[in-house]
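Justification of computing resources. Each target in the renewal requires a structure prediction run like the one illustrated here; the chain below, 227 residues long, is used simply to show the kind of job we budget for.
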Amino acid sequence: MIAELAEFLNNWTITIVWAAIVAACLAVLVFDLRRRNPQTMSLMRAVWFLTVLYSGPIGLGVYWFSGRRQIRRDSIWRRGWRSVSHCYSGCGAGEVIGVVVTIGLLAWAAWPAAIATFTLAYVFGYAMTVGPLLQEGVGLRAALWDAFTSESASIFFMEIVAIGVDMLIAGDATIGQPLFWNGMIVSLSCGLIAAWPVNVLLIRWGVKSGMHDPRETAASGHHGQEG
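Resulting structure tokens:
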């Protein structure tokens, strides 16, 4: 089955069609943020943009379900999606950069590339939490500890699944093959979905608070950030 999937994904038409779908999804997102949800804080605007960029209609669906003030009620499931998307926006950047540089440009072997990509995912994932906290006046040590305690498990499961799927599907692909890019597309979304229940559990256990309810943000005009 893996061989058949890899053969199917090794097609530039899929890459082009996916790019068109992602562009359409980004247009819908930008329109909705500007016209119907202008209260969305800048951090979450970046989170939703990157989530849709990485996962197209899946990311847009997550935004529609959990990130708009038009939701009827909030829930731990929606908080989990907002929280995992926040993590995903940073980790996804680390994964894309890691895969493209180590495998695509430097032609590293699979395992060294995986370790480097895994490390970059942590760096970028932590940065998405540490950066805003520093802007709010939190000390560096406290911000790093907050990122470590709240994001480590989410990043771990996200990247184990994402990198594992990418190696399984497109481990031998080069940057000039459509399988290289299409495998990354599939693996990113697999990582997002795999880390969602982890974030739900972390919120339930009080390790994470989850991102703000967008209805409360709209009502108060609040522009802060939560992990």
